[in-house]
Each structure stands twice: as C-alpha cells, then as structure tokens.
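Kindly draft a sequence, keeping tokens residue-aligned:
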Amino acid sequence: MNQTTHQRELENRVLRALADEDLKDLGNTLQDTSPDDVVLVLERLTAKQRAIVFRLLHKDEALEVFEALDPSVQSDLVRGLRDAEVAEIFEGLDPDDRVWLLDELPATLAPKLLHGLSERERRLTGVVLGYPQDSVGRRMTPEYVTTRMDYTVADTMVRLRDRIDDAETIYMLPVLDDARHVAGVVSLRDLIAAEPHTIIATIMSEAQSVPASEDAERAARKLTEAGFVALPVVDRERRLVGLLTFDDAMRIIEHEESEDSARQGGVEPLRRPYFATPIMQLVRSRVVWLLVLAVGATLTVQVLDVFEGTLAEVTVLALFVPLLIGTGGNTGNQAATTVTRALALGDVKARDIARVLGREARVGLLLGLLLGTLGFTIAGLVYSWDIGLVIGLTLVAICTVAATIGGIMPLIARWVKVDPAVFSNPFISTFVDASGLIIYFLIARAILGL
C-alpha cells in the first residue's frame, strides 16, 4: 500500500468514526497512527472535528502533533480546546514555537496564555516577542548551551549534560569570550572526537552570526546555503541572544515561498492548509486581486479602442492579438520569477538594477529574434510577407520590452520596500498586454501604410 492510499484510508476511518460518534474506535485508530499521519489528517478536518480528534491523543503524542501543525491551524485548535488543555500545551512548546502561535492568535488571547506560563518560560518567550515581526530575533530560540574559549572539552561536556533538557539543539555550541561575544562555534562531533583535556579555543571554528534585527528570510537562507546546523543571533553589541536552528530556517523559507508563489499567481497567501481554510477566506484572498487586475485590463480595452480603425482595415491583425500578448506576458513573468528568486537568494541586490536591465534586455532580444523568425516564416507563408514582417518585428520588440520590464520590476519593488512578488506576474502581465498592443499596431501602421 503506497503512502497516499494509506493516508486516504486513514482519513476515511477517522471521518466514519466521527460520523458514527464512535470515540472508542477513533481512539484505537489514533493509537496505531504515527504523529506525522495524524498531522495530515487534522489539517483536512473541520475545526470541530479537529478538536475532538486532538483530545483523544495521548499526552506526549498530542504535544508532538501540535508542534508539527501549521501555526494558523494551531490557532484554530486552541479556540476549540479547554483552558486547561491549552495551558498545558502552551507550556510544553519551545519559546520560538510559542511566538509563531501567538502571532496567529487574537491579541486578547495572547496575554492570557502568557500569564499562565511559568516564570522561566514567560521570560524566555518575552525575549523572542521583543523583536520586530519579520526579524530573525522573532524566530530564534533563546534556549541553547554555550561554552567558553578557555574551557576544556571535559568542562564543556559536563555543562552540556547539565543543560541538555533545556536546549533546543546541542549539535552546535557557540563559544563565548568574557564579554559574551561569539568568538567561534564548536560542534558536538568535534567535542566527542577530542581528548577531554583539550582547550576549546584550539578546536573551535570561525563563527558566522546574524544580528537579531536581520530579516528572517535572509538569515534563514544564509544558514541553509552554508549548510549550518544553527546560526548564532547577536544583539547590537554582538553579544549572543539566541540561535536560529535549521528546522526553523526551513520553516521560515517555506512560509515566505508560499507567500511569494501566491502573490505571483494573483492571490493573497492563505497562511494555512487549503482544507483548513474557510470558503469566505478563499474568496477574500482572490477577489481584491481580481478587481485590481480587471481595472488594469481596461488599459488593453482602451488600446484596442484607439486602434479600432487599424483593425477594421486589416482584420487579420486581430487573429494574432492573443498570441502576441500571451507571449509578452509569459516572457515578462519568466524574467520576474528569475530575478525575484535571485533576490531571495542574495545573488542580486537592488543596486544591480542597471546590470539586470542590460542582461534581461539582451535575453529578451535573443528570445524575440528566435520567436520572431518563426512568426515571420509561418505568418508570411499563410497570409503575406508583409503580415509576417509585422508579426516578426512585433515579437522581437515585445519580448525585449517584456523581459526588461519583468526583470527590473522586482528590483524596483525591493528598492521601495515592497514585496517583489506583489510587483510580479499579475501587474507585469497587465502592463505588457497594453504596451504590447501599442507596439503591435504602431509597427503594423508603419509597414502596412495604414
């Protein structure tokens, strides 16, 4: 039985037990189910069903399942549980995971949950909450184990054993100097391989760190590209305040890429699994963009109205309108997607706008020459060589303009501090449609003498 079939059968069993109100059968089903499979099922249930299923989980498994859920689903689940259940789960979360959840909860509920924490957990959570919403400080863990340059490996191992239950990761330890500055890092592998009397300063590696105010996505990509297990997070005085772990970095990147892909498709990000999203939220995520793009599309209508006489004289020109605006939109979207990705990876900076403009103009020109040659040949053979020349030259011009505009739009967005994905595909398609038609009809008038 493959994984998909297994998950479908599990979901059907859970739904049947819920429909029959057979909690005994439901409990037996969950008892034989892995936490990962439970998470997949929960994300496809209604809020009420989710609360019932979650209450039947064993205490230890419940916390593991809760931590693996999307923060928005966690928020829905919190509303369906009793106060005592919520308090117990909230206390068991790591501080950074608590903050993910708090960011999704209503403002009135957050103080109540924080008040129920132990003094230590409230203090650690407060450290993370003190940083701006999109900063890496908001996503770091304040639970870690450190060592010092003058400690021995034996001293460090004793320190590690004493604090192992309180640390989110033990595979990389920051090495501090007397002022709590990060002097280096040492891995658990190096500690195990070294002799007990070895001084930490002799085996530590050079540390790369990020300021707590750094954008969380940039910090996460820095960590994953370097292949680190964790990355020290420091304050303005370069003192250690936390660690960004690999699993949190992947979570940040997944969250950001989900937002980008949604906005490139002309919808607002859902921030939750599809089946856990109410119908009205799906509508709201799409309707605003549809209205904006519908207004933008009136530009295309206006252009067609202006050149109505040209179309009336040579009706064959109307046949190529969908081809030309479709090619232009696709070319612009390709360029925008490529540059947006390069921006996210740090390969391109906002100041590189001139270099990007030059590169994308050349790429667009070459694409236009290839497509234009093909268009010229086919249209010339089928209709006339004058029409073929109009189509060929238009494809060259549209591809060059579309690639250039598509390439610099994300950079302009970054420069004015707007999400590049917002400036991407939907707006580029609208702009290129209108400008492409203007280019098309101007070339047709010039060549055909209209």
